[in-house]
Design brief:
By secondary structure, this protein is an alpha/beta fold. The chain has one domain: Vaccinia Virus protein VP39 (Rossmann fold, 3-Layer(aba) Sandwich). Helices cover 30% and strands 28% of the residues. It is built from seven helices and ten strands. The protein has helices at residues 15-29, 43-50, 98-108, 137-144, 157-163, 173-176, 179-184; strands at 3-10, 33-39, 55-61, 69-70, 83-89, 109-118, 129-130, 151-152, 167-171, 193-197. The strands form two sheets. An eight-stranded mixed sheet has the order 4-3-2-1-5-6-10-9, with helices on both faces. The chain has a two-stranded antiparallel ribbon with strand order 7-8. β2, α2 (43-50) and β3 (55-61) form a beta-alpha-beta unit. The chain is globular and about 45 Å long.
């Protein structure tokens, strides 16, 4: 049985996307044996993934006490073309040099691999709004929606990912869900997902 290596990167505060990713990825990874790297693992993910017989994963994060490996997303200590799948939920809006992080995610993804990336996304905003001079937590909350966010992504988020090398398709999975399922998994209908691939 082929082994697919999966990297899952999540912020500890990614509550708005966590149950969504649990529902979304379970069907995608249950069919084959996977080695998975989980960043900032929340208990719900740890429990689910440890119970999956087809998963062999290592958790990693910069600060989380639950992680097995300390990891900086702008300097990922894995070789090029390591992972078949990268799942990155609500991380990039925290990273000052998000373009470097995107390049690192692209680098560790195998040719033919795919990545699912989620960020707070304002479809009404043509360009990402960011200001590196804003460091006050209250001002960041006012401008970016959360004290530790450094930007609000606009429609150019797709362009940024493509600049890193990805081929990108914007998905509207949440809007296609039955209302009962959406309520069950607490899915936000405005939560867009970016499906990224790396050419072979």
């Amino acid at each position: 049985m082929a082994c697919a290596r999966i990297a899952l990167l999540l912020t500890a505060t990614a509550c708005c996307g966590s149950t969504y990713l649990t529902a979304l990825t379970s069907s995608a990874i249950d069919s084959e044996y996977c080695t998975l790297r989980l960043s900032a693992p929340e208990p719900i993910f740890q429990k689910k993934l440890r119970a999956s017989p087809n998963l062999d994963y290592t958790s990693a994060d910069l600060n989380s006490p639950f992680a097995m490996v300390k990891l900086d997303i702008t300097d990922i200590p894995y070789a090029e073309n390591t992972f078949d799948v990268v799942l990155c939920s609500h991380v990039l809006e925290h990273i000052p040099d998000d373009r470097k992080a995107m390049s690192e995610l692209y680098r560790i993804l195998k040719p033919g691999g795919w990545a699912l990336l989620l960020v707070p996304f304002d479809a009404e905003r043509p360009e990402t709004f960011e200001d590196p001079d804003v460091v006050d937590p209250k001002e960041r909350t006012r401008l970016f929606g959360q004290f530790d966010h450094v930007r609000v992504y606009g429609r150019d988020f797709k362009d940024r990912l493509e600049s890193a090398g990805f081929t990108v398709r914007q998905e509207f999975y949440a809007r296609e869900l039955d209302q009962v399922l959406a309520q069950r998994y607490q899915v936000l209908v405005e939560l867009d997902m970016f499906y990224c691939t790396k050419s072979t």
